[in-house]
Amino acid sequence: MSNNVTTVSSPWSAFSGPNLGYVMEQYDLFLQAPDEVEAELVTLFQQFGAPALATGEVSEAVNVEPGNFKKVLAAVQLADTIRNQGHLAADIYPLKDRHLDTSRIELSTYGLTEGDLVEMPATLFFNDVPVSVNNGRDAINYLKSLYTDKIAFEFAHVAQSEERAWIQGKIESGSLKAKLSIEEKKAILDRLTRVEGFEKFIHKTFVGQKRFSIEGLDTLVVLMDEIANQSSAINMKNIQIGMAHRGRLNVLTHIVRKPYDMMFADFAHVSNEHFLPKDGSLEITKGWTNDVKYHMGATYTSPSGMKIKLAYNPSHLEVVAPIVVGQTRAAQDDTTHAGAPTQDASKSLAILVHGDAAFPGQGIVTETLNFAKTNGFSTGGSIHIISNNMIGFTTEHFDSRSSVYSSDPAKGFEVPIVHVNADAPEAVVQVARFAFEYRQKFGKDILVDLIGYRRYGHNETDDPTVTNPQTYAIVPKHPTVRVLYGEQLATEGVVTNEEVATLDTSIYAEMQASYDHVKEVGETAEHITTEMPDAVKDGFPVVETGVDKDRLKKINEELLAWPESFEPQNKLSKILKKREEAFETGKIDWGHAETLAYATIIQDGRSVRFTGQDAQRGTFSQRHLVLHDKNNNSEFTPLHNVSGAKASFAVYNSPLTETGVVGFEYGYNMENPNNLSVWEAQFGDFANMAQVMFDNFISSSRAKWGQKTGLVMLLPHGYEGQGPEHSSSRMERYLQLSAENNWTVAYCSNAANYYHLLRRQAAMLGTEAIRPLVVVTPKYLLRHPLAGATAEQLSKGSFQTVLEQEGLGGNPAKVERILFGSGKVTIDLADQIGDGSEFDHLHIVRVEQLYPFPEEKIADIVKRYPNAKELVWVQEEPKNQGSYLFATQYMIDIANENGKKLTYVGRPAMSSTAEGDADSHKAAQAKLLAEALTK
Length: 935
Prior knowledge:
The chain is an alpha/beta fold and 935 residues long. It has a 9-stranded mixed beta sheet with strand order 1-10-11-9-8-2-5-4-3. Strands 15-12-16-17-19-18-23 form a 7-stranded mixed beta sheet, with helices on both faces. It has 32 helices and 25 strands. The longest helix is centred in the middle third of the chain and has 28 residues, at 497-524. Its EC number is 1.2.4.2. This is 2-oxoglutarate dehydrogenase E1 component. Residues 588-784 form the Transketolase-like pyrimidine-binding domain. E1 component of the 2-oxoglutarate dehydrogenase (OGDH) complex which catalyzes the decarboxylation of 2-oxoglutarate, the first step in the conversion of 2-oxoglutarate to succinyl-CoA and CO(2).
């Protein structure tokens, strides 16, 4: 059989003489009046274009009577339908409980008989005819054997003809079905015996404990194992795996190589660190609160040096997908040089395991698929696997999706789909090789729909017969894939039935020995608990972040220089050139200070990656990190040309998604902990769409799983009369999640303090003290002169958690009221007081860091004003939102200790975040400012 089979480019090469002439006449008519042309011809004209005279040598022509040409066209259509829709008739359901649609590929549907096909040459269907194919009948039967067996294909939706031809060639050459060696077959049997034995042992030994077993999809491990083998063969550096809880423990054990005794220790409530391999091949992390066993991950280093990482993941199923893709991109990027990072997709591969109900049901899946071809988020292709047990908890497919297959959403992204019967282990191995080869050749995502069943209920205490009685009348009678494959190999003479039984017994005994060891250790060993690291308890140390003024001046000059051939838009050129003047004599605005911070950070050897929907320019046209030539739209990034830079800088405009991008950046920073990863919401409230990432990963991953990240999140916020949705970043949500020094929440009022905050965060990267940073950033303050910075402020000092209003508080005896607030409202107050000469009764304290709350510094300030009767928390957010309720728990103690009264000035409690029109906003804002400043 040839290994170079491709289809003919069109059916027209099979026609000659009057038949071809007739078809050409019909094509002319099709161009003028398609409704007058027979439907079969219309379909072929649409698919193959104009008929043309054959060029070169024609091996055979079809000799039919002028009235019978439709037989040939019908045969071509039949072959095309087998290729494109044969999957509907394929043997891909282990329980055989789904209707197979064969009507589309039956001869009678096309008015054909076997006799008709026998008269047709095989060249009508193939350019390179397989040796076993002698005529049209053989060709159709051959195609059916390929497209309706245990493996089924969907690739007609792939736009690139080169990809379609390659896939079709792989299928029709027969190479995809290449037979496995005896050693490979025995290895599969061993793997299946371990997979099943592991589940059986837990089921018997730890009765009633949840494990979300893999049973019914045992070959998922075989599939992943083969992908790992293929990856190792090309010296790939690491594999990143993301999956939910079903089958996770088995994957941890047999792919990530977590030893049996470690796994059994988790069930027996014995500290699994006692059984950690001493060769360092397995790495695990734990937090001080810990998590359930089927959320945990690990990293295995194989003898070849390749790392296999299973990402930690809560019960939110698909949300781990963008995180793993972000980790994969970080592993591919070289950020250790100036300029843009360089990506090598051969270094790392993402394997994403999805649930069949979750894949079409969770929007994060399509958010992640959408990354595949974008500049800042591509990874050279992920291998997606739908772990398809044909049910979602208790929900049947007709209630969980509107598509034929779970995999259908992938078609919109031109992802080839391969369906495979999970009870066919050798087919699963062949599919793994095919998927890996496709990814390597085309650098694109590919999806494997592994179709099996679920042997038990959603968990092992659940009775599925209550809700799915028909399916679970079949399942108990259906042999496991290990049994089926053992019988197959015994029939083939690869092994004997006795050897199959002996293997099962010996592996079970191995597991029993591991468990006996766990019990023995558990009787004497102390339970190991994880404590919060001192570096976390202590919070950030004070870090001097000033940069020599001459160094900053040189950086500033370099940022304002671009090639002579580059011509930015005139208005933008003038705006940027003003930064030279601002550095010398005026105020450095927010975007300017931020850019200088990034420049110094990459000079210090820390790479920077910045993403957001408008990150390059800035939502409010304040940043301009990437310039565009007005003549040809070419791009220029000034930060790529900073002299002395020791690390890369990247800024990408992201897709219009929050959950996916935030997850991606979280994963990127975990994989590259020395990179300053920054994400900016277009408006702060847009981060609402990524709440699951904040709740379940960023705020708590250190406590649950011991995973560190220094991700920076910029959330534009401020009340300027733009209505409810563009005012509030919902900072109260982040403050509510604040505990155990898990992250920093800051709301700066000054560009210099923001500059020092970024530099402090970069300085702590890669240390035990690092934590995420939530920054509530301004909108109209971006260019406000009272929020600007001088070069002197950037060259000296460090981030200040508290700032005091200049011009106030100089005479402590006269101060009767101390105002406390954060961010924009403190600048509004500063606008009102001018030089402060008429406000001796007031002092204003800007709380720049809301968490960890600077309680001691505030208490020290209060003690300086013994005559102050009132401490006032001022905010523009409603009383039930913003920072007031969070700050109150600290401020009450300070007020009580100093004999002061604590009061609130701001909007009343509201269900909405802000007023809906500018006039109402102005009135409410004026009222609260007046109330705050009144004696």
